Amino acid sequence: MENIPVIFAFIYGTLVGSFLNVVILRLPTKGASIVFPASHCPQCQTPLHWYENIPLLSFLALRGRCRQCKKTISWQYPLVELAMGLLSLFLFSRYGVTSAFFIYFVYVAALLVIIVIDLYHQIIPDVISLPGIPLGVVASLFLPGLSWQDSLIGILVGGGIFYAIALGYYLVTKRQGMGGGDIKLLAMIGAFQGWQAVPFVIFASSLLGTLIGLGAMVKQKKGGQTRIPYGPFLAVASLLYLFFEIPIQQAIHWYLTRSL
Fold first, then answer.
1. What are the angstrom distances between the C-alpha of 30 and each of 26, 27, 138, 218, 225?
2. For 108-152, how does the pLDDT look when each residue is reduced to its tens digit (9 = 90+)?
3. Inter-axis angle of helices 126-139 and 180-193, nearest 10
4. Looking at residue 179, what DSSP letter applies?
5. What is d(CA 35, CA 9) in angstroms, rounded to the nearest whole number?
6. Domain map of the chain by residue range?
7. Cα–Cα distance between 59 and 145 in angstroms, integer?
8. How many Å apart are CA 46 and CA 37, to the nearest integer?
9. CA-CA distance, 176 to 251, in Å (whole number)?
10. Contact of 127 with 27, CB cutoff 8 Å
11. Which residues lie across from 40 on neighbouring strands?
12. CA 94 to CA 55: how far, in whole Å?
């Protein structure tokens, strides 16, 4: 019986993950609705029956192909559903059925959508990041260990640092470096997680971006002209801090005290 809430948290996450796939597919398309029409095959436009829309299970039952046109279904769909299910499970194991669970559930869902859209289109939708900034401040009133002052400072520090970096790069090179979407995303992260998270998010995302970027340079053979989206690294670093805040802060404290 004690495992039922855990199972429910995972199923709840996969169900929301199924909806997030719709958001990911339609949000970058100008004028497209995330509600209408109902779910359908992106290849042949055939509407899906309810039993073809069961998270994870339908993909396995259909063997990754549309029932009507037999075209391959992208692995994005089950992976997003699985990822949201696991994120929901992790949040539930940490916060239980509390306001923090539901607030961070919406937050990590937004980050997951940003990760996939930025990977595909190299854009971070303003419709997510801009409302996310004030929502993060409001959420700080209900989150444990986060004051509204920490949230406001997080916005200023996160958005301000990246804006200064982007401006400096442009003044020196006369080229656009960091996009405005990354600035808004880090401001949103600062709003939901406070200024304390910002240094780690910048460091971890830069490290991840550098490692992946070097691999992309080798693969694409474009040298310094290689372009990869930075938003996914910010989002992943934010998730790492969200779930491992205590050991991360302990490691930072140990390093600083040892260095001094």
1. 8, 7, 29, 34, 29
2. 999 999 999 999 999 999 999 999 999 999 999 999 989 999 999
3. 20
4. -
5. 24
6. 140-260
7. 40
8. 11
9. 35
10. yes
11. 47
12. 24
